[in-house]
Amino acid sequence: MPTDQNRVHEGRNAMKIAVCGYGRAGKAMIESILESNEHELSAVLCRDGSENASGNLSEVLYGERLSRLPDLSITPMSEAVQALDPGQVDVVVDFSHKDSALSFVEMCGIIHSNLVICTTGHSPEEIALVGELATEKSIGVVYAPNLTVGINLLMEFVAKLSKVFGDASFEILEKHPPDKAKPTATAGLIARSIGNGEIPVHSIRLDGFVGVHEVVASNGLERIVVSHESLSRGAFACGALAAAAFVCGKVGLYTMEDVVNDLGE
């Protein structure tokens, strides 16, 4: 029986997946692949110069070798093309840094892999370049700075809400752990989806939150509150797996909106 975090991509074809970055979200992604009993963790990549380059995955993540984890060495990006054969990886999921995006598109073009970009802070011009290069290299790329399916549904709803209640005022409240930059990139995307001038964003940084985004709209006659909360980073992994499954067999640039629309069909 699939775990809750794997229900979104239940029934999709098995995938061979490489993960770049093994922070909190990357680690959750690795665990989700292994727990699926369906997909294969083909490789784990790191930035060049990382102290963990060539280290054993299990020892890096948990400080010891665990039998439930594959015996994989962490591969620096500069060595990935030589280390990975064409067909060895179906999809690369990148949690590393936005500056690596174009390099990953180049690499994926060589190894015939698709790509899910989960990093934030990209400018529209940078994303346009990613799309152009993806088409040139004949690979599919999902740009997914907001991985959870629920937050994308929230943005879709508030975009409609702002059209129906054109005279309403909106504010956004987001709550995250203390080390999260404020405001979040997600809050900015929610504000843009509202498209109603400058939307105030209020940030709370306290231990105990994974991620909460709340939108409050009022026109003086009605007040609507829409909230999304990620209860664990497994939600990010679930969205990344859905994006990976979606992009297989495609060419060009897609977004999580495309992924969510596909899930709803």
UniProtKB/TrEMBL annotation:
Residues 150-259 form the Dihydrodipicolinate reductase C-terminal domain. Belongs to the DapB family. InterPro entries: DapB_C, DapB_N, DHDPR_bac, NAD(P)-bd_dom_sf. One of its GO terms (molecular function) is 4-hydroxy-tetrahydrodipicolinate reductase. Pathway: Amino-acid biosynthesis; L-lysine biosynthesis via DAP pathway; (S)-tetrahydrodipicolinate from L-aspartate: step 4/4. Its EC number is 1.17.1.8. Residues 15-146 form the Dihydrodipicolinate reductase N-terminal domain. One of its GO terms (cellular component) is cytosol. SUPFAM superfamilies: Glyceraldehyde-3-phosphate dehydrogenase-like, C-terminal domain, NAD(P)-binding Rossmann-fold domains. CDD domains: DHDPR_N (cd02274). One of its GO terms (biological process) is diaminopimelate biosynthetic process. It catalyses: (S)-2,3,4,5-tetrahydrodipicolinate + NAD(+) + H2O = (2S,4S)-4-hydroxy-2,3,4,5-tetrahydrodipicolinate + NADH + H(+); (S)-2,3,4,5-tetrahydrodipicolinate + NADP(+) + H2O = (2S,4S)-4-hydroxy-2,3,4,5-tetrahydrodipicolinate + NADPH + H(+). It holds the Pfam family DapB_N. This is 4-hydroxy-tetrahydrodipicolinate reductase. Keywords: Amino-acid biosynthesis, Diaminopimelate biosynthesis, Lysine biosynthesis, NAD, NADP, Oxidoreductase. The keyword Transcription regulation does not apply. It comes from Eggerthella guodeyinii.
